[in-house]
Design goal:
The complex is a heterodimer of chains A (about 325) and B (about 425). Chain A has about 325 residues and is α/β, with parallel strands linked by helices. Chain A has helices spanning about 15-25, 55-65, 85-95, 110-115, 135-150, 170-185, 230-235, 240-245, 250-255, 275-280, 285-305, 315-320; strands at about 45-50, 70-75, 100-105, 125-130, 160-165, 185-190, 205-210, 220-225, 260-265. Chain A folds into two domains: about 10-135 and about 295-320, 3-Layer(aba) Sandwich (Rossmann fold), CATH 3.40.50.1370; about 135-290, Aspartate/ornithine carbamoyltransferase (Rossmann fold), CATH 3.40.50. Chain A has twelve helices and nine strands. Chain B folds into two domains: about 5-50 and about 375-390 and about 405-430, Roll (Urease, subunit C, domain 1), CATH 2.30.40.10; about 55-360, Alpha-Beta Barrel (TIM Barrel). The chains are: A alpha/beta (about 325), B alpha/beta (about 425). The interface of A and B includes residues 107, 118 and 200 of A.
Chain lengths: ~325, ~425
């Protein structure tokens, strides 16, 4: 594993499997009456959120606390960032406070990359979503969920057919998933109107379709991406209704799926836009499990990035071998 | 003492000669060793190539308004170190150079600094807002004698304003220097649109946004029979369009920056805003097409687009950073690496693209002359075999935003003579006056 997790593309297949296997072991903690391990005792994890994201922040916070790390939440709202403090000065402040890991969410693509490579901070940087670039821990939790549901929770995703539908152009979730799922051997197909596909998508390790209907029956999993309504005013598509008709997942399309296939969504959902309420609440939907798996996967990432050179090493060994 | 003798220089890498300068003019070009050096200051230029002083068509000196980034004095000192004897100061200052008062101020600051000639470029529209034509005639008639007009940084995107401006400047032999960027196609754009922008999640800046404006403008120029200069051409398609326009006899000239001759969008992978520039760094195919266009004369001039920014505007995340990079002190070396060492351009070609043609485009009367008797004595002496490491802290510019940090570049400006007086000797600026 690298020191930082900035892109899903940084993970080799063995790295990715190590994260998923570690997450599976750590997931068992969630079933215990006391959901806490001493692994990262004395280590400081800063959640540095320049963008609102309650669910991702809470997930990282829960993950760090279950590993007994000290957690500092730093959100742009109400902090000096809103008064115009630079990323550099914020980073230097965190460094002075002795952050061992910085979990960063930022509206600007590449901001975690800058934090990791600028020399401003010495700790590990974990990308919790940067602009329209990547969201690697989301891809890891999606891979974890896919493996649980489609591969008995073991090994890779060889031959599993995953269809990702929606606003690929602006989606950091899609970018990270294409990279990670293809690393794990899955066959990924992106479905979107041509306006919502980036230039150069034909070079990505996946297939691309403008039509959803022919792809659905051959999918082991369909992942619906959030589509923001302002895309309509920017003329990426004519109306919300037309988008829903052509690219939304409703009962009819869901009925074309094979029996074992699942429906995923990284949240938050626009019910009635990219996914109907019936589908979101159906038995095929694993959306709530994705959230639960997010905590385990983020525990695994923190453990692997911070545990390797931890003074709390004996406790780490005890946990991994004890399970 | 105004007599100066440059001994043993190779003029345009051809004949070796002694150049005798007196009172700002070249008074004699003698056989090596033949010049009378009695009472003269002698510059031993053995092994150096003598070129006419470089003329930059595109320099941001930032004064008035952003003296924290650059001043006329610091920018022209950087220019002298880069071998320039004339720079054209872009209009996007604060206040904008859209009146005779501002262009005369910049022109006078250049005179006072004395490092090189400063030719202000006037704004095309009031406040660069693109809606009302500025007083182009007043700027042309001012002491600054403005002949080039540009809203650089912004495109004159309104076709009617562009047409009127092209027509209006015919009255005083002016030209419009267009920053070709279709604004709607580049809203929020951060880097070249291509495979890499999709991967990096940075808003793309399509080549067509530049090319569509160039296509429109050459046709407008043909229609009103005026003169167009295209700033910082950056795409292969733009080169094709200009080549076509010239073949039709349209009066268009074009410039390319050193960085677009050497660097590609791959550098954005680092998310280091030192590589963020407008127009953006493009692909290797574009770089090769630009080099070819400069070699065959489709592109007339190398222009630096020297764009100083304080460090806080670069030490930040990509999307928050300012566009632009320094260029004056590295221009010659980058041209050597991309054009001379690749065999695309000889030293006569370097003189043509960095001095003679840009002076003609800017209508700068006393620059861009040949190194012959009776010509003004603007001479740049270059060591073609030297190499140097770019260290931002050692640059004369007030800003540090060079994209070549710690890069080893070939070729070095050793001496610069402006108006018969040395401004740079052995790579160091001379104390003036």
């Amino acid at each position: 594993m690298n020191k930082h997790l900035l892109s899903a593309g940084d993970l080799s297949k063995s790295d990715a499997l190590l994260v998923l296997d570690t997450a599976a072991q750590l997931a068992q903690v969630a079933d215990r009456p006391v959901k806490k391990l001493p692994t990262l005792r004395g280590r400081t994890v800063v959640n540095l959120f320049f963008e609102d994201s309650t669910r991702t922040r809470i997930s990282f916070e829960a993950a760090a606390k279950r590993l007994s790390a000290d957690v500092i939440n730093f959100s742009a709202k109400g902090s000096s960032v809103s008064k115009g403090e630079s990323l550099k000065d914020t980073a230097l402040t965190l460094e002075a406070m002795g952050a061992d890991a910085v979990v960063v969410r930022h509206g600007s693509s590449g901001a975690p990359h800058r934090l990791a490579n600028s020399g401003w901070i010495g700790g590990s940087v974990i990308n919790a979503g940067d602009g329209t670039h990547e969201h690697p821990t989301q891809a890891l939790l999606d891979a974890y969920t896919l493996r649980e549901k489609l591969a008995n929770g073991e090994g890779d995703l060889a031959g599993k057919r995953v269809t990702i539908v929606g606003d690929v152009l602006h989606s950091r979730v899609a970018r990270s998933n294409v990279l990670l799922l293809s690393t794990l051997g899955a066959d990924v197909t992106l479905v979107a109107p041509p306006t919502l596909l980036p230039v150069g998508v034909e070079t990505w390790p996946c297939k691309v379709s403008y039509d959803l209907d022919p792809v659905v029956p051959d999918s082991d999993a369909v992942m619906m991406l959030r589509v923001q309504l302002e895309r309509m005013t920017d003329s990426y598509f004519p109306t919300a209704r037309e988008y829903s008709r052509r690219y939304g997942l409703d009962n009819h399309r869901m009925s074309m799926l094979s029996d074992e296939s699942i429906v995923m969504h990284p949240g938050p959902m626009n019910r009635g836009m990219e996914i109907t309420a019936d589908v979101a609440d159906s038995k095929r939907s694993v959306i709530v499990e994705q959230v639960a798996n997010g905590v385990s996967v983020r525990m695994a990432v923190l453990y692997l990035l911070l545990g390797g050179y931890s003074p709390a090493q004996p406790a780490v060994d005890e946990i991994v071998e004890g399970n | 003492m105004s007599r100066l003798v440059i001994t043993g220089a190779s003029i345009l890498n051809q004949a070796t000669a002694d150049i005798v300068i007196d009172s700002g003019k070249i008074v004699e070009v003698a056989k090596p060793g033949a010049a009378d050096t009695f009472g003269a200051r002698v510059i031993d230029a053995a092994g150096l190539i003598a070129l006419p002083g470089f003329v930059d068509l595109h320099t941001h000196l930032r004064e008035p308004g952003r003296e924290d980034a650059e001043t006329v004095e610091s920018g022209t000192r950087a220019a002298a170190l880069g071998g320039f004897t004339c720079v054209h100061a872009m209009a996007n200052t604060e206040p904008v150079a859209d009146t005779a008062g501002v262009v005369e101020q910049v022109w006078r600051l250049g005179k006072e600094a004395g490092w090189c000639e400063v030719r202000p470029i006037g704004a095309v529209t009031v406040g660069l807002a693109g809606t009302h034509m500025a007083e182009l005639g007043a700027m042309a008639a001012s002491a600054a004698q403005v002949r080039l007009f540009s809203d650089d940084g912004k495109c004159v995107d309104d076709a009617v304003i562009m047409r009127r401006a092209l027509e209006y400047v015919k009255a005083f032999d002016g030209a419009i220097a267009q920053h070709a960027q279709e604004p709607r196609l580049t809203e929020g754009a951060q880097m070249n649109e291509g495979v890499l922008s999709g991967t990096l999640g940075l808003r793309g800046w399509p080549a067509v946004a530049e090319e569509a404006i160039i296509a429109r403008d050459v046709l407008l120029t043909q229609h009103v029979n005026s003169r167009l200069h295209v700033c910082h051409v950056s795409t292969a398609g733009s080169v094709e369009l200009i080549r076509w326009a010239k073949s039709k006899g349209i009066n268009v000239t074009a410039e390319v920056t050193p960085h677009h001759l050497l660097l590609t969008d791959e550098l954005a992978r680092s998310y280091d805003p030192h590589f963020k520039v407008n127009p953006p760094l493009r692909t290797q195919e574009d770089v090769l097409a630009l080099r070819e266009g400069l070699a065959d004369g489709t592109i007339d001039a190398v222009a630096t687009d020297h764009a100083p920014h304080p460090s806080e505007d670069k030490e930040c995340e990509w999307s928050a950073a300012a566009f632009g990079m320094l260029g004056l002190e590295t221009a010659l070396s980058v041209v050597v690496e991309s054009m001379v060492n690749t065999g695309l351009l000889d030293w006569a070609g370097v003189a043509d693209r960095m001095s003679i043609r840009p002076a003609a485009i800017g209508r700068v009367r006393d620059q861009g002359g040949r190194l012959e008797v009776r010509q003004p004595a603007h001479v740049t002496l270059v060591d073609p075999h030297a190499s140097w490491t770019v260290r931002p802290n050692e640059l004369a510019s007030r800003s540090r935003n060079t994209p070549y940090r710690e890069r080893v570049l070939p070729g070095r400006v050793v001496h610069t003579i402006f108006d018969g007086k040395p401004t740079v000797i052995d790579g160091q600026t001379e104390r003036m006056h």
